[in-house]
Design goal:
By secondary structure, this protein is mostly helical. The protein has helices at residues 8-34, 46-77, 84-105, 120-142, 149-163, 175-210, 214-232, 248-259, 261-276, 285-310, 312-318, 322-352, 361-393, 398-404, 406-433. The chain is globular.
Length: 449
């Protein structure tokens, strides 16, 4: 690490690992409930487990983005973080709000709006927390010795993510209007401004890991940003098909949803092209695996599988089925989860000075988790297509269909077990790295820039 204040990132990454572990636990609770092993139902009903599972996903990814920003921004700005103390206060308050929210879910204290279940009083605390984070990052950039496209794209992605949280806090009595603005948060995060964050982090990692000139990599970043805004904003329309909005959203949503894979395709081509042009071999191959893997898997999960069921003629059958879960799992994994694991894999040797990327456990973590995720995606795909045919085409009762597709959840649980083995290897490696070391200050392992 080049700056003492980058140590802050370690504690955000450690929180990530804890929250990811907890998310997996709740995933298994739901998986076992799907095959009839619902012994925890009296304590953790399925709807509680689902809300906890999905909200933990959002929280640990946001925590990872914050940790990435606290590591990347000082390096890109060529100066220490504006306030280390403020960063630690922000992390502690972030964890406290998260713990209260998760406990609240188990006592039915929530809003009941998917991905935005967090109770309204806690919303205001989240706003204060994120404003504190953005202030710290903004002041670091403001007082920086230099500016970079990577630095600014990452910051504006984080800023826009914060601004787009606000529409979800507006209260509406009408469910259609409420859903309309809820998608401003959910869609414009994951298929809009989070892609800017993804682009900024990818740019940083590619500069560090490939040795390609910064100017070349950042020119590609402009292309990715342009494709994101071209398709992502009006692509929100594919969530408006069946919620009571005007029919023109069928056309708008259909056309721009067809364009949405372009941004992810651009990222995949960008990453692979930079790897092909690399000038030197960086020793941290594990970080490179996660970086390139994120670019490719995001195109498959978010781009291709998203387009496969968002066209109106298809979506009228697949909407609200396990086909959506199939797309969601691989999309979040490829686009954002793998990216967070990539920046952790790059940062940890630099923070601690321990070069654990030379061992086999990192490769086992990568391949086991990715094969496991592909297995889960496949199981959910078969279950979802079967559900569409039996329920939507043949008109069978929902609960009857759920019994018919139980077998596929056995397959999903086996794949989830392999995925968990991979994540366990990753977490064990994280722990083996130990705490940040002063001996690592002033240098990065194998950097090419």
């Amino acid at each position: 690490m080049r700056f003492q204040s980058q140590k802050v990132a370690y504690w955000f990454f450690a929180t990530c690992m804890l929250l990811l572990s907890l998310q997996i636990v709740y995933g298994f609770i739901m998986g076992f409930a799907r095959i009839g092993l619902d012994g925890l139902h009296d304590y953790i009903p399925f709807n509680t487990a689902r809300a906890t599972h999905t909200n933990l996903l959002v929280v640990w990814l946001l925590t990872g983005f914050m940790g990435a920003a606290y590591y990347i921004i000082p390096e890109e700005s060529d100066r220490e973080l504006y306030s280390v103390k403020l960063a630690y206060i922000q992390l502690i308050s972030w964890v406290v709000v998260g713990v209260i929210a998760i406990i609240g879910f188990h006592f039915n204290w929530w809003e009941g709006r998917k991905f935005l279940e967090i109770p309204r009083p806690l919303d205001y605390l989240v706003v204060v927390n994120v404003l504190t984070f953005l202030f710290n990052i903004a002041m670091t950039i403001w007082e920086a010795k230099k500016r970079s496209t990577t630095q600014l794209v990452l910051f504006f992605g984080l800023l826009c993510a914060a601004l787009l949280y606000l529409p979800g806090m507006i209260y509406f009595d009408n469910q259609t209007i409420d859903s309309y603005f809820r998608w401003w948060v959910v869609h414009l995060w994951v298929e809009g401004v989070w892609e800017l964050i993804m682009g900024g982090i990818l740019s940083f990692l590619l500069i560090k890991l490939t040795g390609v000139d910064r100017e070349v990599i950042e020119k590609w970043l402009y292309v990715v940003v342009g494709l994101t805004f071209l398709s992502g904003i009006l692509g929100t329309g594919h969530h408006y098909y069946w919620i009571g909005t005007p029919k023109y959203w069928l056309m708008v949503g259909g056309i721009f949803s067809a364009l949405e894979p372009l941004a992810f395709l651009g990222m995949a081509i960008w990453a692979l092209n930079m790897y092909r042009k690399k000038g030197k071999n960086h020793p941290n191959k594990i970080a490179l695996y996660w970086t390139l893997g994120s670019a490719m898997m995001s195109f498959i999960g978010a781009g291709f599988l998203g387009f496969a069921h968002t066209w109106p003629a298809v979506n009228q059958w697949t909407h609200g089925t396990l086909v959506t879960a199939m797309h969601g799992h691989l999309a979040f994994w490829g686009a954002y989860a793998m990216l967070v694991l990539a920046v952790i894999s790059y940062a940890m040797p630099n923070l601690t000075g321990r070069k654990l990327f030379t061992g086999m456990s990192g490769y086992l973590a990568f391949w086991a988790s990715n094969i496991g995720m592909l297995g889960m995606t496949g199981a959910l795909a078969v279950a979802g297509i079967t559900q569409v045919y039996l329920e939507r085409k043949l008109g069978m009762d929902f609960l009857v269909v759920q019994k018919e597709i139980i077998f596929h959840f056995y397959g999903m649980l086996l794949a989830a077990t392999l995925f968990t083995v991979g994540i366990t290897y990753f977490i064990v490696d994280f722990i083996r790295h130990g705490l940040p070391s002063n001996e690592a200050l002033g240098k990065n392992v194998g950097d090419l820039d």
